[in-house]
Amino acid sequence: MTSRDAFIAVNRFGLGNRDDELKQAATDPKGWVAQQLSVSVSLPAQLTEFPSSETAIVAFQEARKKARRSKDKTALKAARKAARRNYLNEAIARTQVQIETRQPVVERLVAFWSNHFTVSVQKPLLTGIAGAFEREAIRPYVNGRFVDMLRAAIRHPAMLVYLDNVQSIGPNSKIGQRRKRGLNENLAREVLELHTLGVHGGYTQADVQAFAKMLTGWSVGRKKAAGGFVFHEQAHEPGSKTLLGTRYAESGAAEAEAALVALAQHPSTARHIAFKLARHFTKDKPSDDLVKTLAKTFLDTSGDLRAVMNELIRSSHVWITPLPKVKTPNEYIVSALRAAGMQEKPRKVIGVLRLMGQMPFAAPSPAGWPDEAAKWISPNAMMQRAELAMAMGQRIGGRIKLENLVTETIEPVATAATRAAIRRAPDRLEAIATLFASPEFQRR
Hints:
- The chain is mainly alpha-helical.
- Among the domains are: 4-16 and 324-442, no CATH class; 163-282 and 285-321, no CATH class.
- It has 24 helices and four strands.
- It has a two-stranded antiparallel sheet. A two-stranded antiparallel sheet has the order 3-4.
- Helix 7 (130-138) packs antiparallel against helix 8 (146-155), helix 14 packs across helix 15 and helix 15 packs antiparallel against helix 16.
- The two termini are 18 Å apart.
- The relative contact order is 0.11.
């Protein structure tokens, strides 16, 4: 029998048992998670063939220029279709990585931080580069320093487009005076509210405006086939700015760079990040003591994310309750396929994710996907999960021994009621469906 702590390690920190992960974690659950965190984060083979954000942007810009010159929109339509196809293929590949990975803790962290710094194909211009954002601005930094991820995320073309900073012009800049265009505060506001300080982090509307002015000129290249980050000095608001009581002298792109460093080291940022990590890995309303401990580690280590995670692993709060979190649709589907060891057709998996309302890179707002149970347990959502559980039972059939499946999924935490329901099922298919529909499998 696998220990309860191994169940927590594999399901809370990982993505659900695959093959013998529960057995690997059984002897030292905390050590298993720590070892997963110690590996170098590389780009999975499934994701290596996709174009960079710069390549995708250049291709789209060239198609748009051609359409404008010739007044023939065929090339532009083809570029949009190619971007859509690339998005679907990358969404499929990313889901495959989660199902097949031997580094599930890393993949959970990639998904967590990608959600923290959400960009979404809800904005059509992001279709071709949302996946590239996760590969380029999130994945390399999940075990590194928060400030490096913050800087990479905010400078990335996907973020600059998603939150409209490419449209933000300093009113007193050369371009602003000529075109009579002004600030767009979206990026500045979301960096303060969502990415760093938090909604109660102590900033004011004046801080939002000051930071928006600092960010003017941060844009995406449009000339000489350059699709990456550029700084347009002529769009930058001149003069000094004051953010959170600190005055920043006029220094072009360096103003926002310095502000990001200061924001990454701010106590409110430490608490905001600590709260989100504690909520994700313990319960929807995490212990304030745990949040304070994680925030202190964040500040003491200058935002070393691996150090914060190791502190989290050591906390008793993680290991007290085995099932405090409801799985999101993505977590539920991935964990079911990992448990069954299935090689399901990737497009079918994506179709299920679309039906259940959690397509990759498609969060409904900059706040990302919700991380609380109430958002995922509507009657309709529960019916969808029950139908999926039945489909899983039918797909697996007699291929897997029921006893083994129970042992490798919910055995350490299964209640007497769940065990009885599985035993009373009229046949193997319904027994498997009962397992996948059980509260123990739907939670982590």
